Amino acid sequence: MSYTLLACLAAAVAVLVDLALLRTRLLAGKVFWIAYVIVLGFQLLVNGILTGRHIVRYDPAAILGPRIAWAPVEDLLTGFALVTLTLSAWVWLGRQSRGHDDQPCG
């Protein structure tokens, strides 16, 4: 399975987990997107360093080809999935500990 396919699947799973499974609805709130832009900036910085210095290399057959800050665009999808799943789980667990459920964030 290619990195492209895995990255797309991870992003789709993250959206489904947020909106349908945990129902945190982080993606519907402005706060998430502001936080994500900050994370994205640092992700691009780190990806640029790691891939620009050839510390991390990608098989050209496993990626689409376009790059941002020397990293394949698939890295943006993977980063989005990681951040979304982590924050969704964090919010959901916090709500469970307080006895709240199904309240939108942001």
Spatial order of strands in the largest sheet: 1-2
Q: Give the helix proportion (percent range).
A: 55-70%
The H/E string reads HHEEH
Describe the main β-sheet briefly.
2 strands, antiparallel
- Portion of residues in beta strands equals under 5%
What's the number of extended β-strand segments? Answer: 2
User: Please, how many domains?
Assistant: 1
Low-confidence stretches: none
On the 0 to 100 scale, the average pLDDT is 91
Total count of helical runs of at least 4 residues: 3
Shape verdict: elongated
The structural class is: mainly alpha
Rg value: 16 Å
Describe this structure in words.
- 63% of the residues lie in helices and 4% in strands.
- The protein is mainly alpha-helical.
- The chain has a two-stranded antiparallel ribbon with strand order 1-2.
- A hairpin with a 2-residue loop joins β1 and β2 (71-72).
- α1 (3-21) runs parallel beside α3 and α2 (30-52) packs across α3.
- The chain is elongated and about 50 Å long.
- It starts with a helix and ends in an 8-residue tail after the last helix.
